[in-house]
Amino acid sequence: MGEEASASSPVNLRRPEMTDVDIKDVLKRHANKLMTVPGVVGVAEGRTHGKQCISIFVIDSKAESLKLLPNNIEGYSVNIEESGEFRALDS
Description:
It is a single chain. This protein has one helix at about 25-35, and strands spanning about 40-50, 50-60, 70-75, 75-80. It is α+β, with helices and mostly antiparallel strands. Strands 1-2-4-3 form a four-stranded mixed β-sheet, covered by helices on one side. A hairpin with a 2-residue loop joins strand 1 and strand 2. The model has no long low-confidence stretch (mean pLDDT about 85).
């Protein structure tokens, strides 16, 4: 899909404050790029302090590679959530 982000190239998803943009559209535009950061296992809509945010699920919240993630994407704050690895359930 794309190249993984390296320790020297942070994920650049910042734009001017644009919280009037639908969060679903923001996620569609940026999910693939966010998923290239080592240790990121998922992205989703979230809520923090009563406001919509971008939740980024990671294996280890102390991983060095997470410094590549932005604090804000198109006006939505980013919330890092340690989830460990995701695994499919047996059916």
